[in-house]
Amino acid sequence: MTGFDPTGSTVVVTGAGNGIGAALATTMAAHGARTVVADLDAAGAARTVEAITAAGGTALGVPGDAASQDGVDALIAAARAEYGPIDAWFANAGVDRGRGLDASDDDWELSWNVNVLAHVHAARRLVPDWVERGRGRFVVTASAAGLLTMLGAPAYSVTKHGAVAFAEWLSATYRHRGVVVQAVCPQGVQTRMLDDAGPLKELLSHDTALTVDDVAGAVLEACSDDRFLILPHPEVADYYRARAQATDRWLGGMNRLQRGLETTTRQENRP
Ligand SMILES: NC(=O)c1ccc[n+]([C@@H]2O[C@H](COP(=O)([O-])OP(=O)(O)OC[C@H]3O[C@@H](n4cnc5c(N)ncnc54)[C@H](O)[C@@H]3O)[C@@H](O)[C@H]2O)c1
Is 1.10.3720.10 the CATH classification of the domain at 10-237? Predict the structure, then answer.
């Protein structure tokens, strides 16, 4: 069966205390899902639950780490205990740490754990149940950086490529068993993460940063046809094609953007 109707479904959204995750959770809840709101930020998770319940929706807040295997296990147990089997998992929590070659091993390790291993930890537990039931949905909030690259942010770019690669592998392996996998790959979105991106903020906003509700709306819409790539900024498809078809030309263009960024940063740092 194609498509996903949130009504009466149990969905889990990680990183749902803020930003895109909060919008995904409120959107799913507004369409009738029993929504589990997971975040390291307990106050953020509580805020999202409050917003959902105030609007007449159903939500459970589960503060904790959605990246470690223990954290994922605790989250799955809490969700199943409250609402029964999990129908859809929105692997949305993500981090953007470190800049350039100065990114530390700790930055790389955290990025790897949250942006990639979290998805492995979740899929390992969820997929066997979904295969048995003949249905389940795993939606990864990756990034356009996972298809292209993000200047200045090697740990983010590499691990978001890893997130997309893992999602592709899951889809290729389990789609005939009813498991639908989707990868959300936006460019700039107006959240705290974009605010913290420093000089990159302007570059990432070049194609107009979307609101979190734009992204949640695009995800809801894409849930109806099960497409793998969800591109809230449609122009990302053109860049992705250009990267594949004329890689050196595309890299030359990225390098021109990098040089522009260096000039802007030099001008900003001038006394
Ligand atoms: N904002 C953008 O421009 C943009 C663009 C493309 C992709 N994304 C991706 O969208 C997702 C959401 O980002 P956002 O922009 O809403 O950022 P955000 O910082 O507003 O929200 C991220 C949330 O994830 C939570 N989180 C981080 N690590 C966690 C962990 N281990 N366990 C549980 N929760 C954890 C944070 O506490 C935070 O609430 C991320 O995966 C990000 O990489 C963002």
Answer: no
